[in-house]
Write a structure and sequence with these properties.
Structural class: alpha/beta
Helix content: 40-55%
Order of helices and strands: EEEHEHEHEHEHEHHHHH
Low-confidence stretches: 1-16
Number of domains: 2
CATH architecture of the largest domain: 3-Layer(aba) Sandwich
CATH topology of the largest domain: Rossmann fold
CATH class of the largest domain: Alpha Beta
Mean pLDDT: 81
């Protein structure tokens, strides 16, 4: 996949163009759900379901052939679970955005998913429309979380890491954007709240990632909460 820049040595996906298809891989062991997701994605332009796998082992063996832009991964897979699988996927294909789709919303799994490099964490009850919107956000370089999960993330990091402000050179705009991201805003809604363009939001995000040594929105928010930069 073409890349347009690197942050801290990590490739960053090329900005999404409205004229190109959003390629997706599905890694899900439940046949009915797997087929339903595949049909939803393939029948909704500009999405295309490029790979479908019933296990992480199958995915790791085949996903490198024409890799997708986004991987939709179940946590509770037989054999290698989704969290460890995402860790491996991120190591092998750092420009691929991986989002976990699961019924679990406990602190431990959420924390592990963020540490593994997941760009999102969605519950399986997420509506089809919201799921497609989330896939588009991921293709554009964002990250996504179900509202309940975003709340758990805030509570988790506030409890686990007492605020300890460190000297950073984040600008007031970047701090405000981080706060909006923590509250669950995506690029478009954050841009509207701040009165700036989506392009400017992307510029601020790249700067935030570089300053916080983060590679996704969820990781940036986690680091900011850990260091007491936002509350």
């Amino acid at each position: 996949m073409p890349l347009h820049c690197k942050l801290n040595g990590e490739p960053v996906p090329k900005p999404f163009s409205p004229t190109e298809a959003i390629s997706v891989a599905i890694i899900e062991d439940q046949k009915e759900l797997r087929e339903g997701l595949s049909f939803l994605i393939d029948s909704t332009p500009p999405f295309e379901c490029r790979h479908v796998y019933a296990s992480m082992e199958e995915a790791l063996a085949g996903i490198g052939i024409n890799p997708p832009r986004v991987a939709l991964v179940d946590i509770g897979l037989p054999g290698l679970d989704g969290i460890e699988g995402v860790r491996i996927l991120r190591e092998r294909h750092p420009s691929m955005a991986a989002v976990l789709l699961t019924v679990f919303k406990d602190d431990d799994r959420i924390f592990q998913a963020i540490c593994a490099g997941a760009c999102g964490y969605l519950l399986k009850k997420t509506s089809p429309a919201r799921l497609l919107e989330a896939l588009k956000d991921l293709a554009e370089g964002g990250s996504v979380m179900s509202p309940e999960v975003a709340t758990r993330v805030m509570q988790l990091f506030r409890k686990s890491h007492p605020p300890r402000r460190q000297g950073t050179n984040l600008s007031p705009q970047e701090l405000r954007l981080l706060k909006l991201m923590m509250e669950g805003h995506q690029n478009k809604t954050a841009a509207a709240e701040m009165g700036i363009s989506a392009h400017t939001v992307n510029f601020h995000l790249r700067s935030i990632y570089e300053k916080l040594h983060a590679h996704s929105r969820s990781e940036a928010v986690a680091r900011a909460l850990r260091d007491g930069l936002i509350r």
